Amino acid sequence: MSKMGENGAANCHQHVALAPVEVSVELGFQHGASKCFDDDGRLKRTGTVWTASAHIITAVIGSGVLSLAWAIGQLGWVAGPAVMLLFSFVTFYTSALLADCYRSGDPVTGRRNYTYMDAVQANLNGIKVKICGYLQYLNIVGVAIGYTIAASISMVAIKRSNCFNKEGDDSPCHVNSNPYMIMFGVAEIVLSQIPDFDQISWLSILAAIMSFTYSSIGLVLGIVQVIQNGGIKGSLTGISIGTVSQMDKIWRSLQAFGDIAFAYSYSIILIEIQDTIKSSPSSEAKVMKKATLTSVTVTTIFYMLCGCMGYAAFGDLAPGNLLTGFGFYNPYWLLDIANAAIVVHLVGAYQVYCQPLFAFIEKWTLKTWPKSEFITKDIQVPIASGRCYNLNLFRLTWRTMFVIVTTVVSMLLPFFNDVVGFLGAIGFWPLTVYFPVEMYIVQKKIPKWSTRWVCLQLLSLACLVITVASAAGSVAGVVSDLKVYRPFKSS
């Protein structure tokens, strides 16, 4: 950005900081899309196809990538890659439908829908809005729990690898994951005080770089393992009956569907990401579709490489977390780097997912108690170079409590694979398929029982069947884990 651009942006931010919200909105509408304000009176959006792609990649290439070798191991060389390609296509297609719902009416000048719930409200109304809200925000809470578990697993892996390297391969090196979950929670408490989605682009870009780092390390180690094995492991149909029982084969295959669904899950924050994109020269929907195509293509290539190479390296014994399959020894430093990259990535991904929930709760409380100073008053805290941070006591309190609760739940239920599969299952059909399809039908006025309407409904029905089956498989996995699980026990 040029010096002039930086000064302009700084002046805009300064103007907004000094003016009340009502004045800012009024000025914005008086001047239309001025140099400081967009057509809706909000501060000028600056997002591009690259920042949107960074947000999506941060959300998509999460810890889910590490479970893909295990998922392909359950399904085999034929069904595994085929299911992955199927989910990538469905995610891209329904995301494109959802992007068209950002504005109501005209795609360039129509009224903006700032959140997923706003889009549902504008197009569907009624009880569906409440159902969408409960599902979206419950899924976000679940993702926060899943990411806390995944981050602690990586931190424990670093600790154990260093212990084995120092004490010897025969050392027990028991490590309790709870302190590491608490450390992750403390970091999230600090970062959750970033007020808005617009201000975490730097965190998304850093997290996206980290995701490519650990995915690449996993890929390289998989290739090396295949070379050491002298060939490719695995079979066309996946883990064989005999290695596991017939019922376990069914449950694990269904859970694999949930794991893959989770690996592509980001629709719940798509509208919020789109709301950061600048309006010109293209409409936000066109930019978002480009970002979605770029991101889904890149992530699918990475997923295919990491998942297939992990299965080729370990075959039926492919681990739930790919990096743990390489042991804790050689090269331990490279695995440490990969696990550290996972932790940094998950720190950012947690914020990308949770910011919409933060914004929703704060908007609701402001509307419910507009005269409460605890909720509305900002305290200016000097930081550096004459700049101030607006500390809001309600934001500090409630976001801190949210992180604490998700951390405690994570400490009670550290079942990474089953949690990932269940989250992917319950969120996939309603949020990634059903609501985007229904909103698109209403927005484009697609006639009932027309060919297009029937095809969209068949897509939705097929995804519903997959969701129900995947959820059942994941629940069976959780029940099985609970039989032998002891809370707060060291691993």
From TrEMBL:
A single GO molecular function term of this UniProt record: symporter activity
Subcellular location: Cell membrane
Entry keyword Transferase: no
Source taxon at top rank: Eukaryota
Keyword Transport: yes
One of the GO BP terms on file: amino acid transmembrane transport
One GO CC annotation: membrane
InterPro entries for the chain: AA_transpt_TM
Transmembrane segments: 52-72, 78-102, 137-158, 202-227, 291-312, 332-353, 396-416, 422-442, 454-479
Ranges of residues in domain Amino acid transporter transmembrane: 45-479
Keywords: Amino-acid transport, Cell membrane, Membrane, Symport, Transmembrane, Transmembrane helix, Transport
One Pfam family in the UniProt entry: Aa_trans
Principal location: membrane
Similarity comment text for this entry: Belongs to the amino acid/polyamine transporter 2 family. Amino acid/auxin permease (AAAP) (TC 2.A.18.2) subfamily.
PANTHER family, alphabetized: OS05G0424000 PROTEIN-RELATED
Protein name: Amino acid transporter transmembrane domain-containing protein
Source organism (scientific name): Musa acuminata subsp. malaccensis
